[in-house]
Amino acid sequence: MNSNPTRVFVARLLGLDVFDPLGDRLGRLRDVVVLSRGLRGAPHAVGIVVEVPGKKRVFVPMTRLTSMDQGQIICTGLVNLRRFQQRGAEQLVVGELFDRKVTLKDGSGEAVIEDIAMDQQRNGEWLVSKLFVRRGTSTSRLRGLRRGHTLLLDWSDTVQEATTEPQGASQMVASYEDLKPADFADALQELSDKRRIEVATELQDERLADVIQELPEEDQVQLLSALDNERAADVLEEMDPDDAADLLADLPSAKAEELLRLMEPDEADDVRRLLQYDEDTAGGLMTPVPVILPPEASVAEALAHVRSEELSPALASSIYVCRPPLETPTGRFLGVVHVQQLLRSAPPEKLGTLVDKNLEPVSDLAPVSEVSRVMASYNLVSLPVVNDAGRLVGAITVDDLLDQLLPDDWRAHEDGEPVRRLGGRVG
User: Fold this and answer.
1) Cis peptide upstream of residue 329 (ω within 30 degrees of 0)
2) Using CB atoms within 10 A of its CB, is residue 120 exposed (0-12), middle (13-18) or buried (19+)?
3) Which of 56, 234, 385, 426 is least buried, going by the fewest C-beta atoms within 10 A?
């Protein structure tokens, strides 16, 4: 390690690429792991958490780092690709130290940690030297962050609040703002139950709904159950109806019914219809809100609908053409218009002239085996679902099908990965 004293602020390191000595990218820094030294002084950093390709987070010891500054991080040696798991007294800077309250020893009150500085000692060890704190800060999901004045303090000038005390999560949420929901969910799984709930409390309803949908079933139930009923119902309304139905099915029936009563009637009705189906049928897999238009609608109107940011790519791939009413269950189902056909057609052209009549819908009572056979046979990313009256009741997307076909624990962390030598070799 460099023998010259070096200081880095963790918040400025987040998201930096980590390279090997040859310049090959290993991954991206997502957190720093520190170990408390109790009364002997400030914590020392023992390693970094790096998000490697595949969105997995691994631990790289500080002893493997040859250079770390605000511009780049370089490491060397072997990197164990086993997923990072916290041990003993280890603490995550972003996950646990950010947002923690401290009491100032000069008697001037309390503050909240927003960043920490680490100094590299001449022996190569990295110690937490400074705390960047904000006084007079309060947070709320609805009001946002109230700014107070900031201070840069020595670690020794503060008294740390016990880890069992309630803690905010605004800094962690802001630090992970760029993460996709699945990656945020992955980061949540590294935290304690207490911190997961605190982070969930801090997130906006829509963001929390997106993250919950990417968690294993047990974690979904835990987080939703930790919210008050009004908030839980708001989050369920923001979820895709099929995901909300799956989650409610895992709750006690009385709790599920209470949440359904608190949801907006239209949202609750969609979920109730899905709960009537067995989970291994087409009706149990489908979403009841695909893009539905009448045959008189134009190509231009259809393209405007599929541009919506709220639509997944799979749902945006097809327009379902039906007679009114256009909410599921619709009038008579006429067929599908694929987005590629829209792109090849003139904007004024009517959808009724473009319908793919060769794509047969599946029954809402069809088994998963039939759904998978049809989607695989015709290379489909979505498939219409109709009831016995020929009315469209929903659509199954490829992600819906994969959720059903993959093992129940596919979202959980795996272990036993090999140690990889930087440069691509496996050892």
Assistant:
1) yes
2) buried
3) 426
Quick one: tokens of 397?
């997307």
Alpha carbon 129 to chain centroid, angstroms: 32
Q: What is the DSSP letter of 96?
A: I
Mean residue pLDDT of the chain comes to 89
**Which tokens hold the place of 322?**
């039906």
Domain ranges of the chain: 1-203, 292-405
User: Does residue 143 have a pLDDT over 70?
Assistant: no
pTM of the model: 0.83
Amino acid sitting at position 230 = E
What type of residue is 339? Answer: V
Nearest by Cα to 190 from 296, 93, 109: 93
CA distance 419 to 74: 18
| Identity of the amino acid at 15 | G
Decide if 163 contacts 96 (C-beta within 8 A): yes
Q: Which tens digits make up the pLDDT trace of 243-301?
A: 999 999 999 999 999 999 999 999 999 999 999 999 999 999 999 999 999 999 999 99
* 89-105 average pLDDT score: 92
Structure tokens at 199: 């982070």
The number of beta carbons lying within 10 Å of the beta carbon of residue 315 is 22
pLDDT for 146 beyond 60? no
Spell out the alpha helix ranges (H) of 149-306. Answer: 170-175, 181-188, 193-202, 205-212, 217-226, 229-238, 241-249, 253-262, 265-275, 282-285, 299-306
Assigned CATH for 292-405: 3.10.580.10
- The whole-angstrom separation of Cα 339 and Cα 351 is 11
Task: Give the H or E element holding residue 395.
Answer: strand 392-397
Banded model confidence at residue 411, pLDDT cuts 50, 70, 90? low
**Residue 2 neighbours by CB under 8 Å, 6+ apart:** 67, 120
